[in-house]
Each structure stands twice: as structure tokens, then as C-alpha cells.
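Our preliminary data section would be incomplete without showing what the modeling component actually yields. Below, a chain of 218 amino acids is followed by its predicted structure, encoded as C-alpha cells that our downstream tools consume directly.
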Amino acid sequence: MGRIVDVQGVGKIYGRSAALRGVTLTVDEGEVLALLGPNGSGKTTLLKILAGAIGPTVGRGTVLGGSLRDRREGVALLAAESYLYDDLTARENLSFAATMAGERLAAHQITAALDRVGLAGQAGTRVRSFSSGMRRRLSLARVALLRPRLLLLDEPYNSLDEEAVALVDDLIISVAARGGVMLATHDAEHARTIADTVVSLDRGVVVRREVLRAQHVG
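Predicted structure:
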């Protein structure tokens, strides 16, 4: 079993404030790790470092075998922000995301992805008219199309109904089968139903690590 994430002593400082302080953790193949903690605990900052969106101030580590300062391939971040283009349709958003990732997708693949998240009927609708829940569903479809080996999720259950929550869990299980998953959430109860390991952060520091099960079994 390989190691997907391995970071030691990672910190991030903004001015005089430390968003992360000496975080050390690992994620193995097949593992789902949940990050818990209050707002401002450093969960989002850590995910952005692992995604390559920002660099650490201190510390070292590897993500999918590359250093924290390497270009990330095989990593997908579902952030709290949708990062969708309002003036594009749902179909065009997925097509553009695939193109930017170097993927060539047939029209039926995009249609199938929209259908899986319940948006097939809105394929030609511009995203500016979507509700927050619909945007979240479209973001899920985009991430699923990219087939990442490491999936990073920031508050993935926000604005979702029960059906969409199940879609998120299905995505987590499918990615964990070929790689690993980290999710930051305030929903500690639900996190414990899907995660193998729970890491709690407080003011940028790991304060607790719980192993719930040896390996995610789906």
C-alpha cells in the first residue's frame, strides 16, 4: 500500500498570523481522512497547500510522490467556492474543465456526468441561474470527470440535500478505491461514517488523531 500524502512540520504564516503550525500527517492508498475543527483552525489552508494552490511557509512533504512545490497532477480540490463560470452552460463548464486538464471527452461522457448529479435537464442552462445546491452538484460532476487519485473536499456537504450527500459519499468511495481522500467538514457525525481517520485541528495545530478503521471498505 503506497502513501498518497506525507507531510511533516507544515506551517503557513500570513503576516503575523499562523494559519498552520507544524502539521504532520499521512494519507495511505485507500484511506479517507476527515479534517475537523472550528472556523480558522487551518483546514482550508492545509487543503490548498496539498492542492498546490498555495505554498507552505515552512515544512516539507510529498503529494502523490512529488514535493509540495511541484505541479500537481492527479489532485482535485472541491473548494467551498464553486470555481464555475457563470456565463457558460453546465455542459460548457464541464467541457472547459476537461480541456484544461488535458482530457478529450465525448459529448455522451459529459451528458452522463450531468445525469449522475441530476443536472441532465439543465445541461444547456447558464450557470448564473443555478442555485447554490445546483452549483455544488455541477462541481461534483466536474471533479468526478477528472478521475483524481487524491480528492480534497472543503465542506462538501454544504447546501446539499440527502440525495446529493449520497452523491458525495459515492464519489469519496470511488476515489478512495484508486487513491485517497481528505475532506474538511464541520459535520463530525457524518464524517465518522465515511472516514477511516479523523484529524482534529485547532488554531493551526493537530490536537487529536483518531483511527476509526484500518482501511476504507466502501
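Strands lie at 3-14, 17-28, 32-36, 58-63, 66-67, 75-78, 150-154, 180-184, 197-202, 205-211. The chain has one domain: 3-83+132-211. Preliminary results of this kind motivate Aim 1 of the renewal.
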